[in-house]
Amino acid sequence: MTTERTGTGVRTVVEPTLSEAEAAMAGALERGDLLTVFGRCSVDYEGRASSTLGPGDRHVTAKPDGTVLVHTDEGQQPVNWQPPGCSQRVERVEGGDEGTDADDDAPLRLVSTRESPDEELVVSFESVRQVSAFAVDDGESLSLTGSEEDLRQRVLESPDLVEPGFQPLVTERRTAAGAVDIFGEDADGNVVVVELKRKRVGPDAVGQLTRYVDALERDLHADATVRGILVAPSVTDRARRMLADRGLEFSAVEPPSEGE
Amino acid sequence: MTTERTGTGVRTVVEPTLSEAEAAMAGALERGDLLTVFGRCSVDYEGRASSTLGPGDRHVTAKPDGTVLVHTDEGQQPVNWQPPGCSQRVERVEGGDEGTDADDDAPLRLVSTRESPDEELVVSFESVRQVSAFAVDDGESLSLTGSEEDLRQRVLESPDLVEPGFQPLVTERRTAAGAVDIFGEDADGNVVVVELKRKRVGPDAVGQLTRYVDALERDLHADATVRGILVAPSVTDRARRMLADRGLEFSAVEPPSEGE
DNA sequence: AAATAGATTTCGTCC
DNA sequence: GGACGAAGTCTATTT
Question: Within 10 Å of residue A118's Cβ, how many Cβ atoms?
């Protein structure tokens, strides 16, 4: 086993005994560090669903905000996790009758729990290869371009992109079926409902637009024509057919990128 | 700087120079290890959208399957990432005119790219606190209970949970609007469309069921009555109202848990 | 490669 | 705290 303690916020223990790993993990949780553990473990989860995962090498992260992530060597998503706000503790299975110390062979457990919903994640390490604790200093936040919000601004600045003469009146207009992205009227004064999507749309988006158009037709009574326009970069074949069946329309508009 | 090389598949470098970090990272990528880097970095992404992230301490993971994850001290989701299948490389910004070596102050970059869609993620380290490489041995896969698939099996085994006399006929029956979860008939011989959800449902699920019912009514022509039943643990108020407006129904069924 | 829908989705926003 | 919808969603399945 080797211990590193540096003055720059990194503490690492390599090939610790389970008791040494326990101490290092407890210290990291105590200090509010970002904790990572690599070792052979099994994982059990019970809460919104239930899962079990047999023994294998995994990389486990516990963040100071209460997040826990268990990653295998494959996949972008963790194989098991716990969301922010959970409480973490490390524990050793109780030893024999007389001993107060934990059995040296007993697994080391990282337990994460929360209430509402009641959930528990247990990572049981049979061996630990590395424990690291990091003091994180991060004040910056992400700046992102190309979201649906960016597309909305683009359409509000240049309504003609939807169709010549389109006039946006309100965003997020409420209906019995939910809030409409953009509510406006066309060159002839007809009511227009616009549903925005930042990428190619499928049947679900058509369903959404349908719900809003139907709801507005009821709200505004029978006399007024309500047009529904799906605004997105492109549509799938089935979605295009569904739009046609329902008398709805599509207008191709790209979300702004980088500079625009 | 301290280097650890153990016989059990863990290599760790603490407080390396950028050149030392570069070598450690390149070796890990070469060997197909799970690579982790903790350090101060900026992140730029360009692809399906664009994003920038200013300097801060982050934990970066590169998996042998091509996944890259950049985590801050907060949140379950990575602040930036690259999906499985991407290609990674480490590089140093080119030095001055005459030198062949990289400028010692030039940032160390982890670059991840893929095509279709064209995406690039660049993590620029101004300092590195730790580089670790792990040889992962994991043969086990996750076993999970409580999914929609489990709910489907429960309903197929006990159709009366939906309503007395319900008879499932086909699963995944195709319609013009997509595949129906369970297609069957009720005690009176009416066509029944069942949409399953493992948790409390909102307006989107009602929209889905509506699409399938509408599509089937057209497919089967006008004479037959098509009932639509949303099967889930519970419904939101608005969803319940939308169901009523459309003449659709709700039946409360929980997905099986643990033992069941 | 594209399409479709589920997910212990997570995340933000608004009520 | 619940409800609702976006997301660089990811992931599995099917065409």
Answer: 10
